[in-house]
Amino acid sequence: MEFQLASLWEALTDAGPDHTCLVVGDDRHTRRSLDDRANQVAHHLLSIGVGPGDRVGLLTYNRVEHVEAMLGCWKISAVPVNLNYRYVADELEWVWKDADLVASVSERTFAHVVGEVIERLGAPVGAGRHLVIEDGSDAEPGFEATAWTEAVDAQPASRDFGVPRSADDLYVIYTGGTTGMPKGVMWRHEDIFFSAMGGGNYLQPISAPEEIIINGTEPAMPMNMTATAPLMHAAGQWVTMISMFTGGTSVVWHGRSFDAGAVLDLCGRENSQMLALVGDAMAIPVAEEMERNPRELPALFAVSNGGAMLSPATRERLAAAFPGKILSDGFGSSETGAVGTGANSAPEEEGSHFTVGPTTQVLDPETLEPVPTGEPGMVARSGHIPLGYMNDETKTGQVFRTDAAGTRWVLSGDRAIVEEDGRLLLLGRDSNTINSGGEKIHPEEVEAACRSHASVEDVIVTGVPDEKWGSSVAAIVQLADGASLDLDGLQEHCRSKIAGYKVPRHLLFSDVQVTNVGKPDTVWARGFACAELGNDDPKAAG
Q1: 406 lies in the same domain as 301
Q2: What is the CATH number of the domain that holds 321?
Q3: Residue 533 pLDDT more than 50?
Q4: Of the candidates 1, 2, 38, 26, which has an alpha carbon nearest to the alpha carbon of residue 244?
């Protein structure tokens, strides 16, 4: 047995088949029932020719079928690929082509955009290659599709796949990255298990794959964890798999939009011990709901955050709303896995402080040597790290580097200082990526959408501080001669080009300034936008 995700899951299932491991809305799965369903998915994929290394796109909201499909792919060493349900056709087409998808699972709601992409790419169809999950929508696919239930129900629940597995099997997560279009981060199963899925034990990762069976009957720290992040993102997948692999229960929020009251009610109903949130966009409404309608939630002992930083003010509100509970800030990314935690940081403490393990250091990005205590450098991680980016050797070479001693590092892009107590103080991203409510937004992509408007002569896009989302998008537009433009008009235009969360929320006017080498002056842009919008802290943006 190896550290392969499906093999680990099956060993856990056989050790404790009757434990309820997954709750999504009204759908409840024991390990055995989830495993049986995943086996049926795997058999269907095999029946249409999907095999080891083949990529299957998953385009759904949070629902039980998403987890069934992931496990089904891993069982035959295929690769589930997360597709962002906010993407418009151009964005979805790019990821579909980059990942070279051979099959898909999507909700009927997304039939139009999936059909458009399949037609554009001439993607293979037929023989159950594209499964559609009924969700109450009346959208017509416009391409040859098979109903999920029809395809999966027809298959056996046995494990006789006849496919070799390996700890080297690929796990791929598409991320916004730092520049350009989304990139597929390629992990080995063994590496992602230890770096982001808990390693089988919160306190001390398991040392042999067979040790996972202990979690079937006597887990060290089983927890019901309420996951609120979308399963299409790393944060949602990782919280879900951490709770299941460590012997607990994953309680997945299934609403299509965040509802703080319903989420807290879900925690109470399922006796969740941990509530996982993503940034101020979720934390603020949760704090407000607890202030308006306090709940006892006796089983809850921790509120965790990851994917986007909490502001000091929000951390303080959470501390007041959940007295006596652990407040935990997680730090990591799709490229690094879970790097560190800021558990029980003082709510009023300035900045974001994290405790990290021995494989994480702050390095000089040029020499890859550790920087002295108190001096800024870049957060880097060694050990269980990804292989690199799919189809992008250049970017892989920039982010994944080997030092003079032969140690391979992933450079996170986050600047930090090592403080006297050994904790890391984060200073911010090394790029101009805008993190809005946990979603990564590339200014270059938004700029391209804005420039296609007839009234825009030039544009520079930057992030500005936002009370709810952490950062929001501001477009500084240089108008064409005689042209006029308002925010509504720009937003309407951009929504046909890019996902709604990327559309500018602020429109400002100025001649676009450049640096002395002719590149857009991003420092000026951030300062200008913050000043115009009445915010005097440009470093807080992005």
Answers
A1: no
A2: 3.40.50.980
A3: yes
A4: 38
